[in-house]
Design goal:
Blueprint: E1 8-14, H1 42-51, E2 59-64, H2 68-78, E3 86-89, H3 95-109, E4 114-119, E5 123-125, H4 127-141, E6 146-151, E7 162-168, E8 175-181, H5 186-195, E9 198-208, H6 209-219, H7 221-231, H8 246-251, E10 257-262, E11 265-267, H9 272-277, E12 287-289, E13 292-295, E14 301-304, E15 309-312, E16 317-322, E17 325-330, H10 337-346, H11 351-354, E18 358-361, E19 364-371, E20 375-382, E21 390-392, E22 396-404, E23 407-411, E24 414-418, E25 423-426, E26 432-435, E27 442-450, E28 459-462
Parallel strand pairs: 1-2, 1-4, 2-3, 6-10, 12-14, 13-15, 14-16
Antiparallel strand pairs: 4-9, 5-11, 6-9, 7-8, 7-9, 8-10, 16-17, 18-19, 19-20, 20-27, 21-28, 22-25, 22-27, 23-24, 23-26
Helix pairs in contact: 1-2, 3-6, 3-7, 6-7
Length: 468
């Protein structure tokens, strides 16, 4: 284990709406939870990158409540201690409230805290150059600056924000921030490249917690006071916090902003075209993942996560096949997928923008096998030693059949031990609980029947995971 700085902390931003890489990314599975190398997710890769500089006990992750269980499991697979400090926003309020929450907490914990902030959904190559830039950024942050990394642009991209570097900071490789420009048009982007003082905004920051707190209090005293209430668990609705990015809310207004140029390969993977550009390809310049068979295709992206995907004679196309949905587009128009998602949210296919049939929970997972208006069939998998909440439903009854393992069941005033092929019926309104007392996964089939079978028909009385 490296000798880590005891005052250096990492903050991982793990939010996202899951629209830009639909249908693979969805609201419950935004891109930082997905794998694009068929191994670890972007979140896990980000966490490992941070652990090369910072102790796992000093890493805080900010996510959304809807993603908490999946984030917990993915970080646990990297290092158990990463799960000890995960903050879950009840409502998404953009990057400023998220960073303010983590920074306020860490400043209270350690007044000398130095913080590095990392988005969890970016692809970075060039680790040595990145860590060199981060070391310089931390050094400048000690002197009271809010430092951001600027990526030297490789072309006039219109999908990124730009930062203009101003006056050089004496004795450093950093510059004062002169201005920000969010996603310029093509002509403006070309002028930025020609100018030579513009950098892509990577959203990676370094600052002293004290400096950030002082600037937040000066620029947005109302947010500072609201966040103090939230941190100290005084009455506050998180949704009353403004929806603000750190760039617009702080970095564009502070006089302490600085930029460090970073010579790294970087992408925010904001479209399938970006995924294609930053991935390994075959001899026909095709990106192929999953069960894919192609003939006479080139310069295209083919991703299958469900079944066999077959294509003939395609050029410059993106084809993404997932459970329940397939997306087809010219590669250079994949950024327009948001329009499709917006239409689907308003129509009968809204469920295909939400998640998949298998949903992760802290105790295990469930898969919806069949769902109609008055009934639903699920496969439920409970990890060894875990148990669901003590709960009841007002509008449905449930039939449980054990497929694998042993189930301990509370059903009203009865406690049952069910083995494979045994079952129980839970009537509407009955308090009940499912537990796996064994050393192997418990698998049951659950059949719900009633006037309403939505997931929100639940009242919890006891819960191991703080969901009451």
């Amino acid at each position: 284990m490296p000798n880590h700085d005891k005052h250096l902390y990492g903050v991982i931003l793990a939010g996202g709406s899951g629209t830009r890489l639909w249908p693979l990314s969805r609201r419950l599975y935004p891109k930082h939870l997905l794998s694009f190398n068929e191994q670890e997710s972007l979140l896990q890769i980000t966490a490992r990158r941070i652990l090369s500089r910072i102790s796992p006990q000093q890493v805080t992750t900010i996510t959304h409540l809807d993603h908490l269980h999946e984030v917990h499991q993915q970080l646990q697979a990297v290092h158990q201690d990463l799960t000890k400090q995960i903050f879950a926003e009840p409502e998404a309020r953009n990057t400023l409230p998220a960073i303010a929450w983590a920074t306020g907490f860490l400043h209270q914990k350690d007044p000398e805290a130095l913080i590095m902030v990392f988005p969890s959904d970016h692809l970075i190559q060039g680790e040595e150059a990145l860590h060199s830039s981060l070391s310089k950024a931390v050094s400048i942050a000690r002197d009271g600056y809010l430092v951001t990394l600027g990526i030297r642009p490789t072309g006039p991209a219109t999908g990124y924000g730009y930062i203009c570097a101003g006056q050089a900071l004496n004795g450093t490789e950093a510059f004062r921030i002169q201005s920000f420009t969010e996603k310029p048009d093509s002509e403006t982007a070309h002028s930025f490249i020609k100018n030579g003082h513009y950098y892509w905004n990577a959203g990676i920051f370094a600052f002293a917690a004290k400096t950030f707190q002082e600037e937040l209090k000066s620029i947005h005293p109302e947010i500072y006071e609201m966040m103090q209430k939230w941190i100290h668990k005084r009455e506050l609705s998180y949704g009353s916090l403004p929806h603000l990015s750190i760039d617009y809310g702080i970095m564009e207004k502070t006089k302490k902003g600085a930029i460090i140029p970073a010579d790294i390969s970087w992408s925010d993977l904001g479209s399938w075209e970006a995924v294609y550009e930053h991935s390994n390809k075959d001899t026909s310049d095709n990106l192929i993942q999953g069960n894919v068979v192609v003939s006479d295709c080139h310069d295209s992206l083919f991703v299958s996560r469900e079944g066999c995907l077959a294509a003939i004679g395609l050029s410059g196309m993106a084809v993404v096949q997932t459970e329940g949905a397939t997306f087809i587009s010219p590669l250079n128009r994949t950024s327009e997928v948001k329009k499709i998602v917006e239409q689907m949210v308003k129509g009968q296919n809204k469920n295909l923008t939400e998640g998949y049939s298998t949903i992760t929970r802290p105790w295990g997972s469930f898969t919806v096998l069949v769902e109609r208006e008055n009934f639903k069939v699920k496969k439920i998998v409970v990890r060894p030693g875990q148990k669901l909440s003590l709960q009841q439903h007002r509008h449905r009854a449930e039939h449980w059949v054990v497929i694998e393992g042993t189930a301990r069941v509370i059903n009203g005033d009865k406690e049952l031990l069910l083995e494979t092929n045994e079952s129980t019926y839970i009537s509407k309104g009955n308090k009940h609980r499912l537990e796996n007392p064994g050393a192997t996964p418990l698998v049951i089939i659950e059949v719900q029947t009633g006037t309403y079978v939505g997931e929100d028909d639940i009242e919890r009385f006891e819960d191991l995971y703080g969901r009451i």
